[in-house]
Design a protein that fits this description.
heterodimer; A: alpha/beta; Rossmann fold; 6 strands; 42% helix; B: Phosphatidylinositol 3-kinase, Chain A; 5-stranded mixed beta sheet; Ig-like_fold (chain B)
Chain lengths: 204, 709
């Protein structure tokens, strides 16, 4: 295991009210399995999953947080290290949707400024119990300029694509940073510098 | 991935055409080179074309000419098989030697890497008239190497040729990421003018006899290369196909006749093609007699090579499976700890009583696991709140082992201030703390420390104490939280009963209070005894019983009552008060304090002054400790001068000399109290106060309290 088996490591965080299905989403993504028994997460668990995006092996380290209210203050200290945050609500639970705003504020206060965010409306297989329409989910995401997907960990809807989309958004940013560090850029800059005096003399 | 190679690797046949020609410094523009390069039926996939003696001029040798000859390359491209579209992949040259690799366009994208390298073996091993040039390339998953070498000449120089061979094998290292040598390839083709000659066969005369058509078989027995290879002196592991052509050297240029010059050089198989590696089948090996410009004849060989090729579809499938497996293994091997409980409920927690709870943590995985409690972010910057102790905070668990963790909670003089602050400011359900047990390279487990704090008078502000309508023991945590957050200016009493009870008791003790309020009073030594809790209960129940302790303990309780609230008694005017020069000036500010604080201050000063006057305590010590308590700095900086400043401030209020000033100020203060409280005096009749009778017994300075009655 000493050999590095990946090109990039992205740290992602799952947050949202208790019982919205954060652990199930992670379990579906990492183990491709689902269990309907509810076990409250008391702390922070993580799983890894390697995906390939644009020829790069990307190791996702996904941190699953406790959703219970008494842990809210303590879990915010984990926001800082995250490059991407999945904010999950339950489409059958109005309160969990209303709390999205609160969670977003938390992210603003505690996460890195350039963190990539995505809102997930989970349990979208439970159509007969739905209380939050897809349109409302889309609206709040649009309002905050955040990606949005409805998912179902149980029926395996959009789980993989959600993580890949978030990872890709982070990759875009990382790639941008890499090209900025590219030595070729220096050459271009130098050329610009050479041009600068000529431009000046042109003006004067 | 390597282990499962068989699941996604298949072999694909490629035709490789190797050719060599010692051109003897001649131009070949008009030669029928297609006879040499298009002799195969099907169009080959890859050509490796080797030339020697391209230019053996002194100038070329001296300057190590290494620019590929494009006239030649053009001619080659014109002469290759006409059933395929070809392009040059790369060429490499060293003086007379040039190696050009030409590939079919359709397989170009299967070549993912190519490198070239030259090595000189001429005079002093530095000149390039002899030596080798080579091309290394990766075709699908296979690495191929083509070597064109021109080894040492002349009949007697067999050993020099062997040495040249070894020199090239050892010395030629490609500049690729792996620094491959020739032998680091799957398929190697060694082409060139190797210059091995034919030893004089007994009974055969030079040169004519050797030119007979079927002499090859006889001659080859005496071929130096074959002899040396048999002896293991060179080309270990290489194979050469059967030779069914005449010696390719040395001819009179323009003819098929062997050397007729004076030198009468013996004919020889100088020009050879050898290979090394598996899955190579030779399809043809021949020379071309009809190209006559040189003193050599050109030679070619055609091979079918099964090239290791990745099935992309299968590869992707296997790759995904392997990644999944690795992830799964990593997830499953994550260290795990089982914690006996994640909620530690201490139940009712009382002031100045330590409670202890133990819980176990067990190793739940087949390896040693480390864990520690995570240090929390500043401002706390510790693993737990002030009122908790966790031991051990860091530990290693061997396989199958279990350890016990002890959590101790003490709401005492050191921690009550911050505990009450946390109770006051917690928005949702209050927990004493949440510990984070961090498994090394594993999950973090939250351990909630909960329970209910049973309020006591200690640590509560004078204002809060003046809002109570029953003894503290009758309040619960939530009620006291509400009371702490109550900011209305209405108070039920003019000063806290608990304060009054202590002052009253001390006052009645007369000379027995001697030894109270000494410099070490702020160490709160009495509070560390269990008996002190009787005093706590006496105060928190507004007891009518006799005071359950000594006057010295009561004095300490009084200091604690004033010291433990979040803000000092003279807050928010502490800094301003320290700047005042006169008592009158200070009293102006004191009159702005909330009425409970103001009353407590005035009352306290009168009480202390009386004790000092009667020489029960040392005025200097009293001023020092009360200066530290009432003017406590909220910025934890212990400044020696500030300490003196506080003491001097207090002295102004409690020393005899200033008596008159204080009296006049206090009367103004009490009148201020009166005006402040006029409107709700009716709702807080002092008659309601227990021990109201003792009010009267407080002489002199009790104006403020008595005033209300």
């Amino acid at each position: 295991m000493a050999k590095k088996t990946y090109d990039l490591l992205f740290k992602l965080l799952l947050i949202g009210d208790s019982g919205v299905g954060k652990t199930c989403i992670l379990f579906r993504f990492s183990d491709d399995a689902f269990t309907s028994t509810f076990i409250s997460t008391i702390g922070i668990d993580f799983k890894i999953k390697t995906v390939e995006l644009r020829g790069k092996k990307i190791k996702l380290q996904i941190w699953d947080t406790a959703g219970q209210e008494r842990f809210h203050t303590i879990t915010t200290s984990y926001y800082r290290g995250a490059m991407g945050i999945m904010l999950v609500y339950d489409i059958t639970n109005e309160k969990s949707f209303e709390n999205i705003v609160k969670w977003l504020r938390n992210i603003d206060e505690h996460a890195n400024e350039d963190v990539e965010k995505m809102i997930l409306g989970n349990k979208c297989d439970m159509t007969d119990k739905r209380v939050v329409s897809k349109e409302r989910g889309e609206a709040i995401a649009r309002e905050h300029g955040i990606r949005f997907k409805e998912t179902s960990a149980k029926s395996n809807i959009n789980i993989e694509s959600a993580f890949c989309e978030l990872a890709e958004a982070i990759l875009d940013k990382t790639a941008g940073r890499e090209s900025a560090e590219n030595p070729e850029r220096v050459v271009i800059d130098r050329r610009n510098n050479e041009k600068a005096p000529a431009y000046k003399s042109c003006c004067s | 991935m390597k282990r499962r190679e068989h699941e996604y690797i298949k072999y694909k046949d490629f035709t490789i055409y190797c050719a060599t020609y010692n051109v003897n410094n001649k131009s070949y523009i008009d030669s029928p080179l297609h006879l040499w390069l298009a002799a195969s039926e099907d169009a080959p996939d890859i050509y490796a074309i080797a030339l020697q003696e391209l230019d053996t001029s002194a100038k070329a040798i001296t300057f190590s000419e290494n620019r590929p000859d494009y006239m030649w390359i053009m001619k080659m491209l014109e002469s290759v098989h006409d059933k395929g579209e070809y392009e040059e992949l790369t060429s490499v040259r060293l003086v007379g030697m040039m190696l050009t690799v030409i590939v079919k366009r359709e397989i170009r994208s299967s070549i993912t890497r190519h490198n070239v390298k030259t090595i000189a073996r001429g005079i002093l091993n530095t000149l390039g008239n002899k030596g080798g040039v080579a091309v290394s390339l990766q075709l699908n998953e296979a690495n191929l190497c083509f070597v064109n070498s021109h080894l040492a000449a002349h009949m007697g120089f067999v050993e020099a040729r062997n040495e040249d061979y070894h020199g090239i094998v050892k010395g030629l290292v490609f500049d690729d990421e792996l620094r491959r040598t020739i032998n680091d390839h799957d398929h190697i083709f060694w082409i060139g003018d190797l210059n091995y000659r034919i030893e004089e066969p007994p009974g055969l005369q030079l040169p004519v006899a050797r030119s007979t058509a079927h002499s090859a078989e006889i001659l080859l027995k005496y071929d130096q290369l074959r002899q040396e290879m048999r002896k293991g002196n060179c080309f270990e592991g290489y194979t050469e196909g059967p030779i069914n052509f005449r010696p390719t050297y040395k001819y009179d240029p323009g003819t098929d006749n062997y050397d007729s010059s004076e030198k009468q050089r013996a004919p020889a198989y100088c020009d050879r093609i050898l290979w090394k590696g598996s899955r190579i089948t030779q399809l043809a090996y021949n020379s071309v007699m009809d190209i006559r410009q040189s003193d050599h004849k050109p030679v070619y060989a055609v091979f079918r090579v099964s090239i290791k090729t990745r099935d992309d579809h299968l590869y992707k499938k296997v790759h995904e499976e392997v990644l999944k497996l690795l992830d799964k293994r990593e997830n499953e091997s994550q260290p795990q700890i089982i914690v006996e409980k994640t909620i530690i409920d201490f139940g009712i927690v009382r002031f100045n009583e330590t409670v202890v709870s133990d819980f176990t943590v067990s190793n739940a995985c087949p390896m040693q696991v480390g864990f520690e409690f995570k240090r929390k972010d500043p401002p706390l910057n510790a693993i737990c709140e002030k009122w908790l102790r966790v031991e051990p905070w860091k530990e290693k668990l061997m396989i199958d082992s279990t350890k016990s963790i002890r959590v101790k909670l003490s709401a005492n003089v050191d921690s009550i201030t911050s505990l009450l602050q946390k109770i006051r400011t917690t928005n949702w359900k209050f927990d004493f703390d949440i510990l984070i047990l961090q498994v090394e390279n594993g999950p973090h487990i939250f351990i909630t420390v909960t329970g209910e704090y049973k309020p006591s008078c200690f640590g509560l502000s004078m204002e809060t104490l003046c809002r109570t309508d029953r003894p503290l023991c009758e309040y619960d945590q939530q009620q006291i939280k509400d009371l702490m957050n109550d900011e209305s200016p209405e108070f039920r009493v003019t000063m806290p009963r608990e304060f009054f009870l202590l002052i009253d008791y001390l006052h009645k003790q007369g000379p027995k209070v001697e030894g109270a309020f000494t410099l070490d009073s702020l160490e709160f030594k009495h509070a560390r005894n269990v008996e002190f809790n009787d005093i706590r209960d006496w105060l928190d129940t507004w007891s009518n019983n006799e005071f359950p302790g000594t006057p010295q303990a009561a004095a300490e309780a009084l200091l604690m009552l004033l010291h433990l609230p979040e803000k000092p008694l003279l807050d928010p005017y502490v800094d301003d008060l320290l700047k005042t020069k006169t008592t009158a000036e200070a009293m102006e500010l004191v009159s702005l304090l909330s009425s409970p604080k103001r009353n407590v201050f005035v009352h306290l000063c009168m009480f202390l002054r009386e004790g000092i006057e009667r020489k029960y305590y040392n005025g200097m010590h009293v001023a020092t400790i009360f200066g530290r308590v009432l003017l406590r700095s909220t910025k934890k900086s212990d400044d020696y001068y500030r300490d003196i400043n506080c003491r001097e401030f207090m002295q102004r209020f409690i020393s005899n000399g200033e008596m008159s000033t204080l009296s006049s100020s206090s009367s103004s203060a009490s009148s201020a109290t009166g005006s402040h409280h006029n409107h709700h005096r009716a709702t807080t009749p002092v008659a309601k106060m227990k021990n109201s009778a003792s009010n009267a017994s407080l002489s002199g300075g009790s104006t403020a309290a008595v005033d209300s009655s």
